[in-house]
Amino acid sequence: MLARATAATPWGIEAHPVQVEVDVHHGLPQVQIVGLPDAAVRESRERERAAIKNCGFDLPPRAVVINLAPADLRKQGNHLDLAIALALLAAHGQLPQEALAGRLICGELGLDGAVRSVRGGLAIADLAARMGVEQVLLPAPNAGEAAALGTVPVIAVAGLADAIEHLLGLAALAPVAAAAPATAARGPLPDLAEVRGQEAAKRALEVAAAGGHNLLLLGPPGSGKTMLARRLPGLLPPLTLAESIAVTKVHSLVAEEPPAGLLTERPFRSPHTGTSTAGIIGGGPIPRPGEASLAHAGVLFLDELPEFRRDTLEALRQPLEEGMVTVVRARARFVFPARFSLVVACNPCPCGHLGDARYRCRCAASAVERYRARVSGPLLDRIDLHVEVPAVTLSELRATPGEPSAAVAARVAAARRLQVERFGTALAIPVNAAMSPAVLARHCAVDPAGRALLDAAFEKLGLSARALDRILKVARTIADLAGGGPIRAVHLAEAIQYRTLDRRVAT
Ligand SMILES: Nc1ncnc2c1ncn2[C@@H]1O[C@H](COP(=O)(O)OP(=O)(O)O)[C@@H](O)[C@H]1O
Ligand SMILES: [Mg+2]
């Protein structure tokens, strides 16, 4: 007898439908799985047999063929166990085939029949909704994220026995109610008021948040670079629903525990300098998102920039330019979103104290040069704002707290609204940093006083044409923070300041 069930397998951050077909006939008792299963799927037949047996069913010895369609799609991991087990029961006549119709079923089975969580629950629910199925059956730990969208009824199953009773109508389970989207498990974000002094760096952080600019912080250890970077997510506007869904889908693929609902905070990722290129960009035998994708819609912070592998930094060019990462495998091309604000921190020299009045730097000139040369030029080229973060003085540390994040975030939000109005749909992401040359020419007119200032900077600082474009974008953001009028000389003067480290770091 033939039985069918619908399941899904991860596909990048999305899920792809898989039809499970089970045929049982008289013949040599053996179980064959066909249709490009990976090792985990091939091993699943043992789990399914044991789970079924431990739920009190006795399957007679028969020849079993399990076909997974489409045949050219590589099926990964443990998502198909539950659907295969249920289809096996139906093919043996122990469950009516109609019970499986109109449902999408995913879950890993334990030998005792327990249903264990799978990765990517939200993506599976999203797929189920698009397919128009009546119900999606998922492991109980995945139910929170899956129900968050509210687009498809989600049935949470703890074990194979639950699923069987539900499908037989013996003990129907009610769909899980959507959790409130705000699952602020991390508590309050760190506040900018905790950072004493560093007014120039705080201002640069505000400009970065307002215009979507990338930021380089240069300064000795302990001056507050990491503190500052951590406070950027709290200055950015709240996630949109679409961003929140994308962030949850990415994190659901790597998290030890499935998220309890939609993630609503902008991510902050700070990978260690020793992280492999695949760990940062994404990849692996089963393609997984890397830090660049885990930082999607949030902040990627590269502390001690020169310590990162050069090829890793070079590989960041794709996400920085396209807002995504593609991982190519023999039969597939996976796309992971990776649009983040980049903040990098860098010591002025290997010991960190070059230019610090209170410590003597003992680095040889050649060592300083080598250290700085490790910073990839193409990466630096994509960073609009460079700012020095000098060692904090005692009087600064004793000073009263500065402006709280909420006040800065309000100005950022106002500046971002102006950009949305200005760019409409002309830019994929409506921020000044994303302006193409044509858009830049339209929106960044400069008056004669400003032009004179730019010309002087061009000569004096030896700026490139590209650096001039950068200055214009940053000046546009500074003007937007000031209410959105035309770019004036004061705005340009501030923007030019954020380029003066160019030669110090790059050469
Ligand atoms: N500007 C500052 N205001 C208040 N505390 C600071 C400041 N700079 C450094 N600190 C203190 O020093 C610690 C280390 O700062 P950190 O941000 O890690 O410095 P960096 O990243 O520049 O090496 C912080 O946890 C904080 O306690
Ligand atoms: Mg640090």
In short:
With 507 residues, the protein is α/β, with parallel strands linked by helices.
Strand order of the largest sheet: 11-14-17-10-18
Main sheet record:
5 strands, parallel
Shape descriptor reads elongated
Q: Roughly what fraction of the amino acids lie in strands?
A: 15-25%
Stretches with pLDDT under 50, minimum 5 residues? none
Q: How would you classify the helix and strand content by structural class?
A: alpha/beta
Total number of helices: 21
Q: What level of helicity do the residues show?
A: 25-40%
Counted beta strands: 18
Small molecules in complex? adenosine-5'-diphosphate, magnesium ion
Overall pLDDT, averaged? 90
The Rg value, from CA coordinates, equals 28 Å
How far apart lie the N and C ends? 73 Å
Secondary structure blueprint with pairings:
Layout: E1 2-11, E2 14-25, E3 30-34, H1 39-54, E4 63-69, H2 81-91, E5 103-105, E6 108-109, E7 115-116, H3 121-131, E8 135-139, H4 143-147, E9 154-157, H5 160-168, H6 199-211, E10 215-218, H7 225-230, H8 241-254, E11 268-269, H9 277-281, E12 282-283, E13 288-289, H10 291-294, E14 299-302, H11 310-315, H12 317-322, E15 324-329, E16 332-337, E17 341-346, H13 365-373, H14 377-380, E18 385-388, H15 394-398, H16 405-423, H17 437-443, H18 448-461, H19 465-481, H20 489-497, H21 502-506
Parallel strand pairs: 3-4, 5-8, 8-9, 10-17, 10-18, 11-14, 14-17
Antiparallel strand pairs: 1-2, 2-4, 6-7, 12-13, 15-16
Helix pairs in contact: 1-2, 6-16, 18-20, 19-20
This protein binds adenosine-5'-diphosphate (ADP) and magnesium ion.
The site of adenosine-5'-diphosphate has 13 residues, from helix 7.
